[in-house]
Amino acid sequence: MSDLPSPCSPSRRPSVPWSRTSTLTLDGPTRVPSPDPAYDGRSLASKKAERVNEAPDEELDLEKQTSRIGLDDVPLEPRRSILEMTQRLEKDPNLVEFDIDDPENPKNWLKPYKWFLTIFSSILILNATFASSAPSAALADIARSLHVKTIEGICTVSLFLTGYVLGPLLWAPLSEIYGRRPIFLITFGGYTALQIGCALAKNIETLLVCRLIAGTFAASPLTNSGGVLTDIWVNNERGTPMAIFALAPFLGPVLGPICGGFIGITVGWQWVFWVLLIFAGVCYVGIIFLLPETYPPVLLLQKARRLRKETGNDALFAPQEHDTRTMGEILKVALTRPILMLFTEPLVALTSVYVAVVYGVLYMLFEAFPIVFEGVHGFNSGESGLTFISVGVGVFLAFLISLYFDARYVRIAKANGGRAPAEARLPQTFLVGGPAFVIGMFWFAWTSYPFIHWIAPAVAGIPIGLGVVLLFMSFLSYLADAYTAYAASALAANTVSRSVLA
What we know:
Number of helices: 19
Structural class: mainly alpha
Number of strands: 0
Strand content: under 5%
Helix content: 55-70%
């Protein structure tokens, strides 16, 4: 910091690691509690109960007073501590923050532009998940061409999903240091380039290594695209964008076998990866020219740097510039807390196992459908891929049903002073999603015989797709509401567990 005079001199200026996983402290006798203390292993459900009686007016006041520094998405409990720190920092005229209706604040951007970013972020996830399943319809051709067994060809799908385990643990914390845009540029660039290695692979080893690394890079949209939506939408506007956003992780795996099957039988399995290269390349160009930085703390940092240059006042500072954490400390929290919660929090463990089983069954269908429709009913790989359309129909039906339950959740929140219990997210699971998934699997299993018309097992994909999406959306929303301050860690634990099983 410069030696320019300031009401808060460098020796007495607050040390503010401005993050939900850091401790806010003040020099001197007064100390502000950490907004996100280290996880202590106690049941977080009991901590949530302590916040039930918070007054809605007080919550609104907290939201209003902390929105200027880009902390709209911080849970209300940490905001109580952050509010006190904000009031202290506001005495320092050198603190850079968002003004009221500041056009640099992503939540103040025009709604059409926010919808564009929502759709584009969803397309990035669609791209990544499309790549996970596209080779599944050409596995026999891959095995035959590279002179390996079919089981080794199946590893082109499973190793890509293994990358989904590694990626979220890296890209999520890095995006909270450097912002969303740099991580998108690096990871999607690597993912795009690796499609060339897959297409030109002359042996199975090269193909599998490229698929593993590509899957790790492709995991970036799975974590950071959701962060973009959190950055640009306020809480009461986020329901419908998140419902649209949730379709992408399931439409991608459904569309993959449809396209991959016809490509494989017409121009060869290599062209599956050339098509993935074209799709990824177009999206990467879109990232370069159309995707701005949306992470508020990084935007405030950029604003502070610009103002220092324009005004010559080197004492200006952004909250993130006082973050004293090292990369090792950040990665330690990111890597250990999700695993700790997975084994110590019953809600996280049980929901993660259930969602992992459901997600694993969805990916097993990519192998089961070809067995039934090619091996039993004599379809070619392209025709077999078309049967996944039924799963896509179920996904869209789930979206429509989710809109009803989202409206129901809003009504419950209004009836409870603006705050609904986390359990209000679950009715779509036990009323529709769970029964539909079980019925669909039973239907598919008992109609997969040669003497039963092929349309019977094909239509079974509708309740399967419907159930998978509703279960996924319901449980992830439930975890986010039940573990507010630790939601990112709870969701990361869920992501890792389902990717391992898939």
